Amino acid sequence: MKLKYNKTPQALKSALRLLAEDYPLQEVSGTESANLTFAPGPEEICGIRLTGSEICITGGSPAAQLRAVGSALSGMAKDGAVLEEACPFSTLGIMLDCSRNAVMRVEHVKLWLRRSALLGYNQLMLYTEDTYEIPGEPRFGYQRGRYSQAELRELDVYAAGLGIELVGCIQTLAHLEQILRWGEYQAVKDYDSVSLVGEPKTYELIGKMLDAIGGALCTRRIHIGMDEAWALGRGAYLDRHGARRTFDIFNEHLAHVVKLCTERGLKPMIWSDMYFAMGSPSRDYYDTAGVIPPDVAAAIPKEVQLVYWDYFHNDAAFYRDWIGRHRAMGHEPIMASGVYTWSNLWYNRKLTEANAGACLDACRAEGLKEIIFTMWGDDGAYCDFDSALAGLAWAAERAYALQAPDEKQLEARFATVCGADYAAVTKACELTSNCSAAIIWDDPILGIFANEGLPSSHYPPLAEVSQSFAKLAEDLSGFAGQNAAGDLDHARLLADVLARKLDVRLRFVAGYESQDRAALSTVSSDAVELAGAIDRLEESWRRGWMRRNKPQGYEIIQLRLAQQAIRHRELARRIEEFLSGAVVNIPELDERMREAKGLLGGPWRFLASGSVII
Prior knowledge:
With 614 residues, the protein is an alpha/beta fold. 46% of the residues lie in helices and 12% in strands. It is built from 22 helices and 16 strands. The longest helix has 32 residues. The chain is globular, with a radius of gyration of 26 Å.
């Protein structure tokens, strides 16, 4: 049934027109009857009331009103009853990592914006280290799928039409290794990924960065990064200026960049971790014994906001402590929690709900007004990012309610807003258990991960892990073609390959140890079949990637899967050579670790080979 509306505030009417691309909303003329009406209300409140066939939406902000529209579309209005929710946050945002190979296509970002609006979000950050166009800098974002100036403007206008603030999130100190590798940027390079503080050309380049983002987006807010600058002052800077207190180098640079922002009318924010890490003997952001000297805190420009990022704690007391530490520095922080996508093949529900839930509780208790949920793509953005919509739906439900989300209500909203079965999408979250990313990238012959196994105190034996993935593949077998919030058939293929890969590896080692020639012969044929399954997995992976993202960056996924396929075929060759007597042993198995330490994964390059990868 279509929900008809008229006599609507112009801004809200524009949003409803955009939402009508996906949802049953219809604008009618003033003479026609409408069953969707709007009334003003408190800023943070969103509510719906059903009277007969009329649904009245209340809300003081566009985000509250549009979430209420989502409630109405989801069938939550009950005759004569009022459904009200309240969000204590003036900013409820999300951040998409577009710097770790996956740059989301403009049309797909628009899809996310529509869904985010109906979930009640009002801000979207695009994390772009170098994946945006800077006029006159052709190597900036070269072959990285960068957003053009026109694309950023298009997204900005579209987001504004939905009441969502599009904020640029860039880097102006570290995490710049992708541009600092090019010859023309050596003059602004301190060390590896860190730019050179005090160098005039550094600030010329940063000025161009700010012009590119500030000129494309309407908001004057901008995130200028500056996190994880571990090598600050230790390369070219050290050669030029000698050793200095890192605090002072950092604040000197920040003052320069804030001045550039102020000249352009921009209001900057930075990640706060370097202050805490520099104050810790162990360089740990979360070191409770760390000390930030008063003169350092006093030198932080008042114009800058600090973003406290924390995805790792499940104790609200820790967040409250760290919020207090930020306030003691004289700055009201913005909170950055996480919907876990990084180093996972699928959205990680368990970590998200435990850690983001505690974070939300702390922020509400402390009266913090701004929170965003980050979605990172560390190690190659191999997660099906659309599966994270389940996490965003959960986080929004949690933010708008005092208690844990009502599962039935969450399922209904998710089905309507995201077009998917919440139970099925979260069932696929079992892909995130037992170090599945490490298993998928582990070399099948070297077995760098498989040799170590999993710590028995927290994980089952690998044979049981294999069986659990086989069961998951079976459970997901009935969802082919359902990809609105994560491709469930792709999840099935992943589970199948994970199960078979572990099984082949375990039988390979056991057969070699016992010199069971018949068992090894079976492993050889199974490895060839598994290589074919990996080829089919690549086809599925490619379909999802090209649907969501620009093509640049997918070559890394293809290289990794091609490695897996050919190495399983190589495994079969090695077995056949051993069985035929062409070789007397398989050195990689003879050398394997005999005392497992419980390796918990690591980036692909640590698992693909024991040799140098350049």
